[in-house]
Design a protein that fits this description.
Layout (H helix, E strand, L loop, with lengths): L7 E3 L13 E2 L3 E9 L4 E7 L5 E8 L13 H12 L8 E6 L3 E7 L4 E2 H8 L4 H20 L2 E2 L8 E3 L5 E3 L6 E2 L17 H4 L6 H5 L1
Parallel strand pairs: 1-6
Antiparallel strand pairs: 2-3, 3-4, 4-5, 5-7, 6-7, 8-10, 9-12, 10-11
């Protein structure tokens, strides 16, 4: 990650492995359980040793590290960081800071202790209409805010809608996010079970309409 992205704390020492619950990252965050993993990152529960608050740590391989996968570029990580810095909304997972070592880049994020909305639906089989409307209002509030800030998610799905400890919705994972530039997009992205059909048309699409 380049210095231009700002707010990055670097360590000259090697990366501590986050496999053990007692691992402390850069003397600041005590890493706990693995909460999930995606194609390019792992997410851990962690505790801020200065404040005692619980957070989530999203860890990526550092694309600038010596021996990093050939052809890997820092653009995607920098884009996600830039997007998250634009967003401060009660129904969007907040980025608190970015830490980096030689081998890893870590996003410090809100901890959504309630897990995925997908898991809630999967466990209950269906929602009541009142509960569905409750979460839909929160989702639309978040999407409207993101679009007003020039940010498009492009992968909205129940697995990326998290719940905090109070059961309030948090939109997460802007790894496929895009920033407004006035042009149609042609990137094939999203999740097959949820992807908007215009993305698959290869004719170009409006990312705001894709989110809706």
């Amino acid at each position: 990650m380049s210095p231009a992205t700002g707010a990055v704390a670097s360590a000259a020492a090697g990366e501590e492995s986050p496999a053990a619950a007692a691992t402390v990252l850069l003397g600041r965050y005590e890493l706990g359980d693995l909460l999930g993993r995606g194609a390019s990152a792992k997410v851990y529960r962690a505790r801020d040793l200065l404040t005692g608050r619980s957070v989530a740590i999203k860890s990526f391989p550092n694309p600038r590290a010596a021996g990093a996968e050939k052809g890997r570029r820092p653009v995607a990580i920098e884009r996600e960081a830039a997007i998250l810095r634009r967003l401060r909304h009660r129904h969007v997972v907040r980025l608190h800071e970015i830490l980096a070592t030689r081998k890893k880049v870590h996003f410090v994020l809100d901890l959504a202790a309630g897990g995925e909305l997908f898991s809630l639906v999967d466990a209950s089989g269906r929602m009541t209409e009142d509960l569905a409307k409750h979460y839909f209002r929160q989702l639309i509030s978040a999407v409207r805010y993101c679009h007003a800030r020039g940010v498009f998610h492009r992968d909205i799905k129940p697995e990326n809608l998290l719940l905090d400890e109070a059961g309030e919705l948090k939109v997460a994972d802007f790894g496929l996010g895009a920033v407004a530039d006035g042009n149609l997009r042609h990137t094939l992205c999203g999740t097959p079970a949820y992807v908007a059909p215009e993305i698959l048309s290869r004719k170009g699409y409006d990312p705001a309409k894709v989110d809706i």
